[in-house]
Design goal:
Layout lengths: L15 H11 L3 E2 L11 H12 L12 H15 L9 E4 L1 H13 L5 E6 L5 H7 L3 E6 L14 H7 L4 E7 L11 H14 L2 E5 L19 H4 L2 E6 H5 L7 E4 L2 H14 L5 H10 L4 H4 L1 H19 L3 E2 L7 E5 L8 H12 L1 E2 L1 E2 L16 E5 L4 H11 L3
Helix pairs in contact: 2-11, 3-11, 4-5, 4-10, 13-15
């Protein structure tokens, strides 16, 4: 007898990242779509991993993570944002920010709950909420009308979406894919909402150290009222150019973290010991992350200027992350997916359609003729991409 499998995610297929990356490989394209560097991390970090292995750090650490790393994270957050998290009860090392997000969402919402997701959004948020049995309530951001502008959160729409069933609000700053970063006014709105409705926040801050134009990163940890209601998530992969290591962390008040650790325990239990040991030693020097914004801002400016001078694509202002948006509105009438497909197959440069980060990628409201490009690449990679785009 055959038992039919009833999918828990019937609407989920192959992700746009897998589709475009495979298409990029098939066409020998320059892949500026998926967000990962094409250069190695600091040699010292790799040496520290090897050293940890030779010293015998090859077995399970404690569930929450290697103690020295928990302490280092606690001290970093306190130094940068002024909030003290207990290394013992309020920080957990996770298998990338992905697991931190998934474990947090599964732990903190369930059947009968509503979770507000701001659109466009990183693709994990929606299925994670659905797997938790909660109902996603999607609220669209206001798109920019000029290259010097950026997406903005419409807080009036957020308030209209709140209900007695709302349990979580998922936010992301610096924002992927739009590059928008939260301003003080945004934190004021969040404080007002938290105070009025008592909801919890999941704050995806994986690009916390990549903020441009001299602006600071405004973490939820930087305001006591928000820190008390937030799960703050970050990524060593994004900070140290090691996305393949899949190590991140989350910080939250003890009551929230207790529930998150219950899910974390049975999802992965714990993560790579020698890498945790190495990271605890490496991040002791604040210079390993303090100059990341200027490092990536130079790459952002370079790609933006080259696009502006040499191609018909119009780069938009990037406020943070290692992405920028570019418009092809004056060049083509294709929808975003078709344009990215054509760009990969015809000119062998891969981008990601911004519409892929919407619930309905084919809807007119999801297609603003914008593509997302990753500039976390070597200069020769960016130069080769521009050389190919000159033929547009």
């Amino acid at each position: 007898m055959t038992t039919e499998i009833r999918s828990k995610l019937p609407s989920v297929g192959t992700t746009i990242f897998s589709i475009m990356s495979q298409l990029s490989i098939q066409n020998k394209a320059i892949n500026l779509g998926q967000g990962f560097p094409d250069f190695n991390p600091d040699k010292k970090l790799i040496e520290l991993v090897n050293q940890a292995m030779l010293e015998g750090y090859n077995q399970y650490p404690q569930l929450a993570g290697f103690h020295d790393l928990l302490i280092a994270i606690s001290e970093k957050i306190e130094n940068l944002y002024g909030h003290r998290y207990s290394p013992e009860t309020e920080i957990t090392i996770t298998s990338g920010a992905t697991e931190a997000l998934m474990s947090s969402i599964l732990a903190l919402c369930g059947t009968g709950d509503e979770v507000i997701i701001i659109e466009p959004f990183y693709d994990l948020y929606l299925p994670a909420v659905q797997l938790a049995g909660a109902t996603p309530v999607v609220v669209a951001m206001d798109p920019p009308t000029h290259p010097n502008e950026n997406y903005k959160i419409n807080w009036e729409k957020i308030r209209d979406a709140l209900s007695s069933r709302t349990r979580l609000l998922i936010i992301n700053t610096p924002h992927n894919p739009t590059t928008m970063v939260f301003k003080n006014d945004d934190l004021n709105e969040l404080e007002s909402i938290v105070n009025q409705y008592g909801i919890n926040i999941i704050s995806d801050e994986v690009y916390e150290h990549i903020v441009f134009n001299g602006n600071p990163h405004l973490s939820m940890s930087s305001r006591p009222a928000l820190a008390e209601k937030s799960v703050v998530i970050s990524s060593f992969g994004k900070t140290y150019h090691v996305t393949g290591w899949k190590i991140g962390y989350c910080a939250a008040p003890k009551a929230l973290m207790t529930e998150i650790r219950k899910v974390h325990q049975f999802a992965v239990f714990t993560v790579s010991t020698p890498m945790q040991v190495a990271l605890s030693r490496f991040m002791g020097d604040a210079n390993t992350y303090a100059n990341l914004s200027s490092f990536y801002e130079e790459k952002k400016d370079y790609l933006s200027n080259q696009l502006r001078i040499n191609t018909p694509l119009a780069p938009y202002s990037s406020e943070g992350s290692f992405f920028l948006l570019a418009s092809y509105a004056d060049y083509s009438d294709l929808n975003e997916y078709d344009f990215c497909h054509w760009l990969t197959t015809k000119h062998r440069v891969t981008a990601i359609p911004l519409s892929a980060f919407y619930c309905s990628p084919t809807a007119n409201t999801s297609n603003n003729k914008l593509i997302r490009l990753c500039f976390a690449k070597n200069t020769n990679t960016l130069d080769e991409a521009i050389a190919r785009l000159k033929c547009l």
